[in-house]
Specification:
There is one protein chain. By secondary structure, the chain is an alpha+beta fold. It contains two helices and four strands. The protein has a single domain, classed as Alpha-Beta Plaits (2-Layer Sandwich), CATH 3.30.70. The chain is 23% helix and 41% strand. The chain has a four-stranded antiparallel sheet, with helices on one face.
C-alpha cells in the first residue's frame, strides 16, 4: 500500500451543516476500495482566486490515507461522480530512507 495525501474541495454552498457527512462519505469511499484512513484535517472555507461559474468558494479537507496504487484512479473516478466533491488532488507520500 502507498500513503497518500488527498486534498478535497467540497461544494457545500449554503449547506455548512453537511460538512461532516461529506467527509464521512469520502472516508467511506476510501475504505470501500480497501484503504485505511490515517488522518483527516478540516481546513476551512476559502474563496477562489479565480471563478469559473457559480461557485466562488469551497470547503477544503485534507485526508491522509493508505491505498493500493492500482485503486487510486478508480477512487478518483468514483468521487468525481459525487456532486459535493468539487475538486480532488492526490499526492503520493514518498518514503524517506533512514
Amino acid at each position: 500500500m502507498n500513503n497518500y495525501d488527498g486534498l478535497f474541495i467540497l461544494n457545500i454552498q449554503g449547506k455548512d451543516e453537511g460538512i461532516k457527512e461529506a467527509i464521512e462519505a469520502i472516508e467511506k469511499e476510501i475504505a470501500g476500495f480497501g484503504g485505511k484512513i490515517n488522518g483527516t484535517q478540516k481546513m476551512d472555507r476559502k474563496r477562489f482566486e479565480r471563478t469559473a461559474g457559480d461557485l466562488d468558494s469551497g470547503f477544503y479537507v485534507n485526508v491522509q490515507f493508505s491505498l493500493e496504487p492500482d485503486k487510486i484512479e478508480a477512487l478518483r473516478t468514483k468521487l468525481g461522480l459525487n456532486e459535493i466533491v468539487y475538486r480532488q488532488f492526490y499526492l503520493k507520500q514518498e518514503t524517506v530512507a533512514a
